[in-house]
Amino acid sequence: MSLSRTVSQILVFFLLLLPLSGSQQLYVLNSLAETASYWNGTEIFNDAATLGLYPNDMLVMGDTLLVLNSGSHNLQIFDRFSYALVGNINLPVNSNPYEMALAEGNQLIISLLQSNQLARVDLTNHSVTDTISTGLSPEGILIVGDRIFVTSSSFNWNDWSYGQGKIIVHNLATLAVEGEILVPTNPQKILQSTDGSLHV
């Protein structure tokens, strides 16, 4: 069984809550069903959009909804009001794209779990503009200022073991590695609090 399948079995749904004109919108990523649902505050619309294989992450950018599919290694771009598919960006084959973060200049930085890389995506031209090696089995990704912080779970695909957990620090402009921070086993998500500290 592939890890992308295992991840999808664990991650049944993903929630994204947005305020809108005094009300709230809730977007739900149904990973095993490979669909997206939408709640407008009073009514739920199930299977509003058909997604790719093992969708794993979702972001809203303006009027668009971005969905990252781990199994079909692509990024789908939807109109978030009509759910019409307005774009598709193919990512490296067998890379298992895992998580994404928005950067300035209409760009995305995406962690590629199986290929141990980061990818930079140009959302204007719908293209992958750069890839670079990062830590082993990268998962969570956070952009703070001019740096990218990536959780390296150090999962070993050969024996299904975990090595030393790390946070790999990349330069946002060049994607070059600037350093690493040792953390406990299997770091996944990384977030920044209001006081500027990072939590893993």
Mean pLDDT value: 90
Q: What structural class do helix, strand and pairing data support?
A: mainly beta
Computed CA radius of gyration, to the nearest angstrom: 17 Å
Largest sheet: number of strands, sense, barrel closure: 4 strands, antiparallel
Query: Strand tally, please?
Result: 20
Look up the CATH topology of the largest domain: Thrombin, subunit H
Number of helices, counting only DSSP H or I runs of 4 residues or more: 1
How much β-strand is present in the residues? over 45%
- Outline the low-pLDDT stretches: 1-12
CATH class term of the largest domain: Mainly Beta
Structural write-up:
By secondary structure, the chain is mainly β. The protein folds into two domains: 1-90, Thrombin, subunit H, CATH 2.40.10; 91-194, Thrombin, subunit H (Beta Barrel), CATH 2.40.10. The protein is 4% helix and 57% strand. It contains one helix and 20 strands. It has one helix at residues 3-10, and strands at 13-20, 23-30, 35-39, 44-50, 55-61, 64-69, 74-79, 85-90, 97-103, 107-112, 117-122, 127-133, 138-144, 147-152, 155-156, 161-162, 165-171, 177-183, 191-192, 198-199. The strands form six sheets. The chain has a four-stranded antiparallel sheet, with no helix packed on it. Strands 5-6-7-8 form a four-stranded antiparallel sheet, with no helix packed on it. β2 and β3 form a beta hairpin. The longest helix is centred in the N-terminal third of the chain and has 8 residues, at 3-10. The chain is globular and about 45 Å long. Mean pLDDT is 90; it is low at 1-12.
